[in-house]
Amino acid sequence: MVAIIGILCLLLVCQILKIILKKGIINKNITDYALEYIVSITIFIALFMQESISRNSLFIIAILSIIYEIISLTYMYFKYYKKETMTDFSIKKVIDECEFGILVLKSKKAKLINNKMYEILDKLNIKKDYITNIISQSIDQLDKNYCVKVEDKYYVFVINNNEIITFDITEEYKLHQKLNGQNKKLKENNKKILLSIDNIEELEKEKNLLKLKNKYHDILGQNLSILQQYLNKENISQENFEEIKFMIQKMFIDIEDTDDTNANLENLIKIHKKNGTDIIIDGKLPQNKETAKVFFEIIREATTNAIRHAGSSKVFVKTRETLEETYMIITNDGRKPNEFITENQGIKDMRRKVKKLGGMFYISTVPEFSVNISIKNNC
Predict the structure, then answer these.
(1) What is the pTM of this model?
(2) 179 part of a folded domain
């Protein structure tokens, strides 16, 4: 009886150990796991109620438990332990199921190669000198890795001494090519932009030169007309010659030019009045500073032309400003011109300045010579 009780105690210990071991098995058989509990509980109840159970019953429970234990341990060994043991074949099986290619070399010969790598190398017709042939067939180098086109797909080969890994980068490589194409276009566009900037700078230089040329054309013409007026005076004395000499020396010096257009106009009127030409203003310059500046420059040029070409002693300037437009008419009391007038640089400059403001510029010879300008106030 004591021996049976000892065997049952030993069997109970074995059951508890098996339950603990099976708890760590992830893919355990639930039925088998539950059976371990049932047998353990049965043995425990038999031990606990040994005095109420006959000796024969305890003996039968012990025999059945021993048989179950032998079967259970055998099953556990083959089902769980044997299955989880790693072998060379199981390693090969695992790497063959990989989606990327693996090649391990030893003395330049394939020591380990999975199915994916074998398939790719076969398509590339690479049977030996693996590293050299992979590099020679590469179409691009990404960092220290090599990109190889295999049929309609792209693979990157990562070479680390005698270990080579490859995987599909078709989508990534297409995006890489697209990005390179966009970068190339950006570089080309940058070159075009830089060229355009150079052209703009050149045009700006030409524009400034033209502006400077027009400015000094107006000023020089004005100074020449003043000198002409002075020379037309009767009874020029020696003192007058000294004054003329001074005027010639100062010919290329700009007449006072400020940001105040009205002050510039008053200065212009005073200078010409001193030399015998009256500029008679009917109205006032526009409130818009840019338009006022253009009107002043046209008055200056028109006065110069009236003195030089028509011998005028009076220049009449009429300006009006309405809600819709601002206009100006300039006439003089000099000789009437021919019916057709050849436009010189001065008239061309006046036309250009008005056109820049979106206005209209025209010259009339009937019934008298007049310069006519109109500029919309919303331009």
Answers:
(1) 0.40
(2) no
Count of residues in the chain: 379
CA angle at 222 for the pair 279 and 211, rounded to the nearest 5°: 115
Closest CA to 303 of 375, 236, 369: 369
pLDDT for 4-30, tens place per residue?
777 778 877 777 777 777 766 655 667
Domain of 146?
A: 91-168
Does residue 188 sit within a domain? no
pLDDT tens column, 175-202: 888 888 888 888 888 888 877 777 776 7
Sheet with strand 325-332: strands edge to edge: 278-282, 314-321, 325-332, 370-376, 360-364
CB 325 within 8 A of CB 331: no
CA separation, residue 279 to residues 28, 216, 231 (Å): 115, 21, 19
Instruction: Return all residues near 291 (Cβ < 8 A) that are at least 6 apart.
Output: 326, 357, 375
- Domain CATH code at residue 332: 3.30.565.10
* CA gap 323, 273 in Å, rounded: 33
